[in-house]
Amino acid sequence: MGNGNKNVERRLPSWLKRPMGSGEKFNRVNAILAELKLATVCSSAGCPNRGECYSAGTATFMIMGENCTRNCQFCAVGHDAVDALDSDEPRRVALAVEKLDLRHVVITSVTRDDLPDGGAEHFGRVIQAIRWQQPSVTIEVLTPDFQGSTECLDVVCEAQPDVFNHNLETVRRLSGEIRSGADYDRSLAVLNYVAGRGQHPTVKSGFMVGLGETDAEIKQLLQDLRNAQVQMLTIGQYLRPGKNNHEVVRYYRPEEFEQIKKVAEQLGFDHVAAGPFVRSSYHAEISLQEKKP
User: What is the pTM of this model?
Assistant: First the structure.
């Protein structure tokens, strides 16, 4: 595991090089997204896996616009003026799911603190539209914290997503600096509440390393997530998306991710995905299939 060393390597390590996307499927995904005027977190957040995922014919939809009401230090998503909700967006997302022939779909969003319900009802409408269009698809949502509102969480969960994901992102000490407008304990409460509901979906969370955390802080974060009844976990390397974002303090080696994964598995998570390029929705369908029953 990490040691909190602040002497970060200046050049990107060899294990963090990624190929560019190409091919028929890559072009088709781009064409469908453009035709239906849909945003993806793959593009908006500058995900390093975009080329691989688009080339495999998959994408993670980002709803409710491309600008966020928060300005987190780890994120590349814009934070200018937000747009009014697009009432036709649920239909277009569902149509894209059909056109891409997806079996598992991940829906995320910008944070919309300007909306009374944080966009919870819009999440529900997107889930319902996909269910109507493609009943056999499994649906995973990656949501903001809705400022801790259990009423908003109920709205999303009552639409019956198969997986509910909300990321803790980083350790307690760094949370206030890295996550604008968020709160470490509030995020844990969100996860614990969803896990405690009757007929709850599978509960998932994730975090990044490389922001300056220590081994002890990582272990505490893992324990906090287990205490919140989280079942699935993703752990990836933080990569600085721009000069105005938080610096990378350290690059973790692949074998260090394996060490963190072992610690997490010993705590009882049903599935742990850990590696330099692991992200919330990366290989999400495979992870759900591999999850312990």
Answer: 0.91
Domain spans, the chain: 14-290
Domain 14-290: state its class.
alpha beta
**Contacts of 94 by beta carbon, 8 Å cutoff, 6+ apart:** 126, 129, 130, 132, 133, 134
Average pLDDT over residues 87-114: 94
Q: Residue 158 has which token pair?
A: 């009552």
CB atoms within 10 A of CB 144: 26
pLDDT score, position 78: 77
Please give the Cα distance from 151 to 155 (Å, whole number). Answer: 6
147 exposed, middle or buried (CB, 10 Å; 0-12, 13-18, 19+)?
Answer: middle
